[in-house]
Amino acid sequence: MSQSVLRAMAEPVDPRKNDMPEDSKWWELLLVETHRNKNIYKDLFYILHGFRAKGTRIKKNSRGEYILRPEYRTDGTAWESEKEYTEDKQRWLEPRADLIKKALKKLKMITG
Fold first, then answer.
1. Domain range summary for the chain, segments of one domain joined by +
2. In sequence order, what DSSP letters do the residues of 39-101 get, joined into one string?
């Protein structure tokens, strides 16, 4: 990986703020939270950063809780398919489900 890619991954900035601005503020808050508190969240910052870069969105469910949802596109700017997302979700997100829930609850506390 190039130094610029590594540097970008080390910053708590939404990598999709320009082309996916609708939830960018939530992503930046979530990335800052997980970056500042690596002692709690371990490697979650890097994983969430990658999922956002790939096109994952933060949405609110019917109870007002934040949840992660993939966006699918065939032009290479998001997840290509449900299969691709599900495989990565199982590998990277599911083993960290408790930490993700904790981080998303913290996001809700921050945003009200």
1. 25-111
2. HHHTTHHHHHHHHHHHTEEEEE-TTS-EEEEE-B-SSSSSBS-HHHHHHHIIIIIGGGHHHHH
Q: What are phi and psi of 88, to 5 degrees?
A: -70, -35
Cα(52)–Cα(112) distance, integer angstroms: 22
pLDDT digits (tens, 9 = 90+) for 79-104: 999 999 999 999 999 999 999 999 99
Q: Choose among 3, 2, 8, 92: nearest CA to 48.
A: 92
Burial class (CB in 10 A: 0-12, 13-18, 19+), 95: exposed
Distance CA 99, CA 105 (A): 10
The structure tokens listed for 65 are 């809780």
Rounded distance between C-alpha atoms, residue 48 and residue 31, angstroms: 7
